[in-house]
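Why run this: before we spend reagent on co-expression, it is cheaper to look at a predicted model of the complex and decide which construct boundaries make sense. The entries below are exactly what would go into the expression plan.
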Amino acid sequence: MKRRTLLASAAMGLMLASGAFAQGMDKVKACFVYVGPIGDGGWTYQHHQGALAVQEAYGDKVEIQYQENVPEGADAERVLTQMALGGCNIIFTTSFGYMDATNAVAAKFPDVKFEHATGFKREHPNVSTYNARFYEGRAVQGTIAGRMTKSNKIGYIASFPIPEVIMGINSYYLHARKVNPDVQLSVVWAFTWFDPAKEADAAKALIDQGVDVIASHTDSTAPLAEAAKTNGAVIGFGQASDMAEYKDGPRVSSIIDNWAPYYVKRVGQLLDGTYEQIDAWEGIAGGEVLIGEITDKVPADVKAEAEALREAIAAGTYHPFTGPINKQDGSPWLAEGQTAPDGDLLGMSFYVEGITGDIPK
Amino acid sequence: MDWGGINPVILIATLMASAVPILLAALGETVVERAGVLNLGVEGMMVIGALGGFIVAVQTGSPVVGFIGGAVCGAALSLIFALLTQVFLANQVATGLALTLFGLGVSSLGGQGYNGVKPPPTGKLFPQALADLPVVGPIVFGHDWVVYFSIAMTAVLWWVLKATRVGLIIRAVGESHEAAHALGYKVNRIRLMCIAFGGAMAGMGGAYVSLARVPQWVDGITAGAGWIALAIVVFASWKPWRVLIGAYLFGGITVLQLNLQVAGSGIPVEYLSMAPYLITILVLVIISAGRKANGAPASLGQNFHASR
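The model came back. Tokens follow.
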């Protein structure tokens, strides 16, 4: 009983405090919840770069707080509650698995703004979601993969069977097949975002089976390190971060998640009072998805082709999911010339035609 | 010679390497537990060893020195545990858990600036000509020296625990520290040495992850391998060869399930993902079932103080 009263009064205090600044705020405490360590060199590292950019942009007007290695699930809810009680004005939850926890805690703290990355639930007016169109980057990777593979076997280390990952697999495969009709895709589900040893094992399994181009959707650089052991026979891509340290090795390009513009914009809006609930989904055009430098390992014509694709996507003249595309079972999804509606992508739970294997449920 | 697209020779060769971290850590913990100490800090010692080994290898340019560095770091961390539990008689379970949290935190701090650095490669022990032999090449001659070391350590520990005076003393301390004390053995000193040995082995196992298996440093690189090692010790009923079986089973099925996915076996991925845990536990329980003298060391987890 006592604890509940304490929570209630703390929450009320917060409400009063933030009510006073309804028209913008003098100082914002921005908090970040990370699923992995900052040192992962990938996903979480990039989110942290975004957080640092916020600090840089606003200096004294912003206080940054973050917690690393927060498990998805009940622990996340505790961490979020603590942050909300601790005076955070805006909380960025940077992994898909925080979706329910974010909404549950948001209900209890209506004056704290919550921003959930890669999710689709906005159950309360103070919950916004933001995502990046990674599948646009996968289209570029797929093109390179289809052109570069010698064995016609390409691989994808997948994390969890969620729409964002499935979107990436489909886009990667479609564009590889477009330039190389013989290409075969092997998908390995690692069921983890971050486990370097397991990611290395998954890469090794793919390599053992003759795959020579590996894309990964997990957070560490381990797949590239494994590919590096083959002395150039196998290539891969930087994922989430540039992973430039493998440039002289297997890394031929990368997808870079650039969260900084979004974080800076949202915290800025909170400071000047123009903040509103949104559902943001920017891609290459908006600068949230960057394609890392394509190295000289890729022949000039392939590089030019990949860069032309990137420019077409950026200019809005090409959508990576443009019909005709059938689902894996042969049923039609997109008709000739039709582009995928965002709703279809955000709920994507099927492979496109040509990919073998099943998506785990 | 393929089974549904999977080459068994490559599979066996891969599993021998992928089981090394768990095997080394579990062997060390076997000795610790046979001496009656329950050190739940294996994960922490492994991750410190992974970082320590990595830093030493990068600084000196020698992976062998790196492995020694990893072992020293693991042993050093385990001495904190030894100090708390053997001198100050702190609760072993709580201290061990704290050691894991401490190790993960310290390694995360100490690893700043080592992200993305590449360690010197750990080469294969035998010339490529031998490793190219069919079948026996990859399995017998295709590994780096740590793989052979881990197998040799299994044999050495089995022999030491079973047939030597040192082994007898360790077991006596673990089974009945009162009796061992009455015979004049320095219980806490013996345990301290066992803990340090366990720490060194765990540290070396960790160093294998960061120097050979993943070759790089990232935070939390061991990702739970220490806990698997702990479980394997128990399910292997504290016997070195069974620890080896357990580690190889776990490593083997982990590798196999990934290969099955790539080969498109049609088995649902969920079952494949849980298979390593399930099958390892099942097999070890079956091996250990129905025989006498398979219990835990009688004094496991109990502190000893000579005044009592």
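The first helix of chain A runs from residue 2 to 19. The longest strand of chain A covers residues 251-257. Bring this page to Monday's planning discussion.
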